[in-house]
Design goal:
The chain has 240 residues and is an alpha/beta fold. The protein is built from eleven helices and six strands.
């Protein structure tokens, strides 16, 4: 109760839920690098063409069976080369994963404010843990919710509710993510303050339901929102 009252007065959240890929780290850039390495290895195609193969609704977005199908379509498939290409893809992808500028500084600032933090991602547990370790940010997040834990993918509300339960959040919640469909809309439905990470949205689409509370063009812009909240509450206090 004390935490809830303090955060209500300060305009700060009790908890912030973050998406992982393209919000905290540059997943799409890393995936393009991995696709480029694979097409160079198999000697045909290009990274854009292979990347688009991963967008097919056949397997999940990270399933390396897309690579085997691509090699078959190009007439260069062998089981041995497909296995090597899949391993190469994963190695290059994780090698190119890195946090966006300002992520460490901003997360550390949020931590010093005593705000609880969790990640809600559509990556599976093993993939998410590898990326968090590579970016050296795992320590900021005591709670990591993945589809293999919650049984659901975003925009379903289940993963978000699970994160709040595990954080024992009891006050205002902010949600930060790069997808209108997977984060902003469900966040609005759940009554969160939604923050759209526009810098990470590689597939922006107009959506009449889109109405995030804030838009950021770099991760460190979160700090400006904290400052804005403080100014608004100071102004409200002076008018009392």
């Amino acid at each position: 109760m004390l935490t809830l009252m303090k955060n209500s007065v300060d305009g700060l959240p009790d908890a912030i839920l973050f998406d992982l890929d393209n919000t905290l780290c540059n997943f799409i850039d890393a995936k393009y690098a991995a696709c480029r390495a694979v097409t160079e290895y198999i000697g045909t195609g290009d990274e854009q063409e292979l990347f688009e193969h991963f967008l097919r609704p056949v397997y999940s977005f990270e399933d390396t069976r897309h690579i085997a199908d691509y090699m078959m379509a190009k007439g260069v498939y062998t089981p041995e080369d497909a296995d090597h290409a899949a391993r190469l893809f994963e190695d290059i992808k994780i090698a190119h994963i890195c946090p966006y500028p300002g992520v460490h500084y901003t997360l550390n600032h949020i931590k010093t404010l005593g705000i609880k933090m969790a990640i809600v991602t559509d990556a599976d547990q093993a993939q998410a843990e590898r990326r968090l370790k590579k970016c050296e940010i795992a320590g900021y997040f005591p709670v990591l919710v993945t589809p293999d834990r919650s049984g659901k993918r975003k925009p379903d509300h289940t993963p978000f509710r699970m994160a709040l339960r595990e954080l024992a959040a009891s006050g205002p919640v902010w949600l930060v993510g790069d997808s209108v469909r997977r984060e902003v809309i469900p966040g609005n439905e759940l009554g969160f303050t939604t923050i759209y990470a526009r810098y990470g949205d590689s597939f922006p689409q107009y959506n009449p339901e889109f109405s995030s509370d804030h838009v950021i063009d770099r991760f460190s812009d979160l700090l400006s929102i904290f400052s804005l909240q403080g100014r608004e509450n100071s102004a409200q206090g002076s008018n009392l």
